[in-house]
Amino acid sequence: MFRVLFLCTGNSARSQMAEALLNWKGRERFHAESAGSRPADRVNPHAIETLREYNVPWQGRAPRGIDGLERESWDFVVTVCDRAKESCPIFPGQPIMAHWGMPDPADVAGDEAKKRKTFEAAFLLLSRRIDLLLALPIEKLERLALEARVRAIGDDWGKHRIAHWPDAPYY
Q: I want to staple 18 with a disulfide (CB 3.0 to 4.6 A). Which of 6, 39, 71, 76 is the partner?
């Protein structure tokens, strides 16, 4: 089973949704966890609501920091915000490192409808990216090719490279 760590700043929205999505969609092959470089006090209620709307199970874990996680063995470490990428620690065992940056939906101002729509858009982007990860023939790829493909997922979903992958789904 591949271990994946999703990192963001607050561990209150993007990384929590990514963790829940990968644990749900990839439950036979992946185990995901998440953390933040500066954890928030609580998980954003809109993130929890969005997961529930899409029937994605969520474990209900409070935001946590990265302390101690850098000593664990990870196959993949994926940052989902620029600030987490900049403060990402060194991990043992040389996990595949990728950056799937995206705006923080919690930063959007406006009424409840706008906030819900923003969280849904973030959720759908993460879901597409995770689908692309799950479609990769991980066991068959050499490390450098695998790292390039996982990183490409974060490059505008890796759209410019995906067209050249014969085994990847089309989005």
A: 6
